[in-house]
User: Fold these one by one.
Assistant:
Number 1:
Amino acid sequence: MKDYPSKKEAALVMVFTFFLLLLIDGLFSESISKGRKEGLLVEIFVIIPALVFVYKKGYPVKKVFRLNKVNRNIILYSLSIGISFLILSEEFERIVRMFFPFPEGFSELEMKMNELFESNNLYEVLILFVSGVLMAG
């Protein structure tokens, strides 16, 4: 028994996933275009076809998705590097804005983008966490 799918099988799963996302985007396009956080849950449907395929074919899930234990030091290093890059990118953005201010219409777009990632209650925090952290990983 093979431990990994073939390139052809992986390509078919990717094509199926792409068309599934197009379908779901069409169904939820109103909530996505209005900036609702539920639109972010569409990301969950990226992993579902791959999971179903792996289970049906009997491949080892841990091996296919590389679900290995992570050393605590790696987590700490990743967090410190991530936070450092976050601070540096914010400061770099401020410096760039001083020399190259954005056009008038851009600030409206930026405000709408920021609203998409704001949370006002626990439900919205949960949606942002699931869609932005777990599914991105």
Number 2:
Amino acid sequence: MKKTIFLSIMVLATYAFPTITKATETVAVTFKFVTINTIDGFDHLSKLIVYCDDKKVSESSQKIQSESNKIIVPIPAGYHTIRATLYALHEGNWEARLKSNDYSFDFEYAKTKNWESNHTINLTFDIEDEMINIVEKILEKPVITPTTQTGNYTDALKKLNTYLKTFDNGYYGYFEIIGNDIYMRFKAGKYNKFKAADMQGAVIQEEYKRVIFKCKGDNKCISTDWNENGKEEYSQFTTGNAYNYQELKNLLDNFLASVKGNLPNPSGSSTTNTTNSSVSDKEKNAAAIRAQKDKERNQNTSSTNLNQKYTVPLKKLNEYLKTFNSETYRDIEVKDGKVYFAFAVYTMIYKSDIDINELKQNTITVKAADEVKIGCKNEGKCFYSTYSKGNADHFRFFSKTVKDLTIMKQLVDDFIKAL
């Protein structure tokens, strides 16, 4: 009888009590954050909410945005997407500070990686420059990122990232590999993502003063978190001026080849051959035809411009843009009865255009505290933007370095008056 009772207790214990397992290993991620260049009267009460794989895991204390704040978040070790979004108290409601909620930029950090060490991540949200300055520090052992890619890419990756630190003031950030994906992480906190197998390689385009890192064929294999469409055919590297295109091309191609396990130029040395061997004959012929058409078009434009009053003011304006903000603005063009204002958003070039008559008769140029804006009269939308793929009510010029906007406004006025 006693034996029967004992066995019954053992059976009940097996089903009634949970199995004791080893505790899940966690790492501590510390976010330190502050908002700078806050406009008077808009110092919102704010908090940072942190998500792991789209699940909320913690939120910070509430402080006005201009005061430094901090939160330490434990997350499970391993591959995760960590997202930290700044929220503001607006009319009694907590609102994510994102462009989708009509904020000037996304007040958000996001990264997918193998989190195996404690991290400290400093986020400085800059209202004036509309960007996030991010400084990350790994506190313990370095993160080990396993990958299924073949090839010893470590040396090529290091050389490429070292080069990018000084290229265009570090604007293009750095590359890293997570699983089967290659990430290009911009200084501003955004990213491009692609797989090595989908990439053709680097191509020099001297006529545009750039190197592009493109997908095979016409495929849009690059995913982004900064473009509304989220897919691109290539990433571009440009400074607004000429530079050593071949050096960057070699670094990109060597990195890609090493990831694929077939490094063609291990030394990373330059070569005088500027032809990309991976470009097909069809693409070469198409490029040659485009180059010839561009040459003819430029010749026609040049001969026409000699008789135009706006030629000199336009040249002065374009020259000044190179020092005003070469990171964002490209040359302004006049053709086919329109004025085209070119600008860069991360790696892509977009344009806003307006009819010459509209620009002369239905706009007004205003100098504000931090920008010169060409605005449409009567609340009209007289510009068309390839970035938003729709009409816009203004085009603006801003600079991170030039504070006195008098010269910029005068050059814009002179150009429009000469049209």
Number 3:
Amino acid sequence: SACPCLAGERLARLRSYDVGMAAPRRLGTRIPSVRCRVAALLMLAALLLGPVERTIANPIPDRSWMKALALPGAYLRSPTEENRRALELMLGQGHIDLLLRRPDTLALIVHNIEAFAPVFVASQTRPFVPDGRIQAWFRTTARTHRDEMIRALRTWLVPGPDSLAPHAENQILESQILAIGPGARQVRLVKVQSGVARLLAEWDAREVLPDLRALRENLADSASQIGAYARAMLLEDLDRAIGLLEGRPDPEPLFPDGHGGFQSGKSADDIDSACVDFGAGRKGLLWLGPAERGALWRHVAAARETLFDASYCARSIQFYFHDLTMAEIAVASAPGALEVSQRSYSRQGIVFYPTRHIWDERLCAWLFGGPSPVAGQRGP
């Protein structure tokens, strides 16, 4: 193996150093020789034992993770109220990442989606705050239950009794809400409503347009209650959601269409430039011509929506648009999965849009040296 050879090389160097230190011995001292031999032994031990320490590292996940991962199976075997509340609490606290890391647990839910769909819907209602990642996963996995999820999100747009009241078992929400007063709680509710408006637009829920318009009209007298800044933030999000549902173009290059795909207000003529980074194996970027980047953008915009536990890879496609927005499509850890990061630049600063995920095996293969998904496209 490599370690003994490396140890022998180091030991030979130390021995040559020891020979070079022979002159002091003639003066009656052996201290340098002893030090060199001790250093050689320590270095040899470190080289030989280092790999062993790495191989015996404990691979067992944290017990709390294992307990959370066992909740779906426990609920499926015994759908008691206790098991349901435990699973609902885990999802309501935004722990879908745990499920995304275990394909077997995720497959269990997908194959029994009729049993789990009501729990996912309940985790997005009061007192839990709706989660964009759960919404994206639900859109791609349980589209037949769209109406139930829309009804759950719609409840956030109408007045309700203390919408963010503490939950007896939800320690995270309880610690956050008990520490703030009624005014701050109202501001927090406004922030949640802003996010819900965007989520409803991602579902293409045009049936909620009357609710969004009514909420916007009711904001006229709310500045004294929630403050001018919170009111302006909600107005901006409401106007954007209403515009999307009315079919107006949006600056975000890729936006969910509510049916497992994406809608885009950007055409090939809107692209200023585009480049491809094939990773460390190739020096420099591949800059695409107008025809190439237009065809590639049309291919990307036609991809399907998905959700996974992402791990960024240094292979990506970057599109830059004339309106100072950009979209970067990067390869993720799952084969065929890509992560879409989008942002917009202006004098006021940078606006970061929610991360999107798409599934395109042919595009991933091209970034790793395979054939292009677009006819006539150059490769690495």
